[in-house]
Amino acid sequence: MNLYLSVGEEDGWKNYDFVINRYRDRNGVTSVERLKETETVEVGNAGYFVSGNTIVYAIPLSVLGVRPGENIGVKAADNLQKFRDMDDFYISGDSAPLGRLYYTYKIV
Fold first, then answer.
1. Are 88 and 81 in contact (CB under 8 A)?
2. How confident is the chain (108 residues) per 10-residue block, as mean pLDDT?
3. pLDDT tens string 40-71
4. CA-based nearest residue to 8, from 70, 85, 98
5. Nearest 5°: phi and psi at 39?
6. SS3 letters for 24-67?
7. DSSP structure class, residue 104
8. CA nearest to 2, candidates 24, 10, 87, 40
9. Neighbours of 29 (CB within 10 A)
10. How many CA atoms lie within 13 A of 1 on its CB side?
11. How many CB atoms lie within 10 A of CB 33?
């Protein structure tokens, strides 16, 4: 399960600035990658915990460059087949919400 995050940057990929959990280990650590239009750069790590069909991420706000009171966009996607292909949000795997939409979360 990957999280795509939008933090309002102008130079992200298709309005998403980060992707979480493309690479992980078995010790509860996963990747935080910055999405640019043509490249992806690992910028930090996040914690994760899995219990049954639930996954919880602990993402440092400092890695995302956001502060309490700001909004971020959140999209969950699972089993996409083509990384960096926006059409794949419609075609393969599952994503919530569907397509180009995302949920807005206010950092508290």
1. yes
2. 90 92 91 94 95 94 94 93 88 86 93
3. 999 999 999 999 999 999 999 999 999 999 99
4. 70
5. -145, 165
6. ECCCCEEEEEEECCCCEEEEEEEEEEEECCEEEEECCHHHHCCC
7. E
8. 24
9. 12
10. 13
11. 19
Residue located via tokens 């949000």: 89
> One-letter amino acid identity for 8?
G
Token pair belonging to 44: 């930090």
Amino acid code (one letter) for 83: F
Q: What's the token pair of residue 101?
A: 């939409």
Alpha-carbon span 8 to 69, nearest angstrom? 14
Which amino acid is present at 99? G
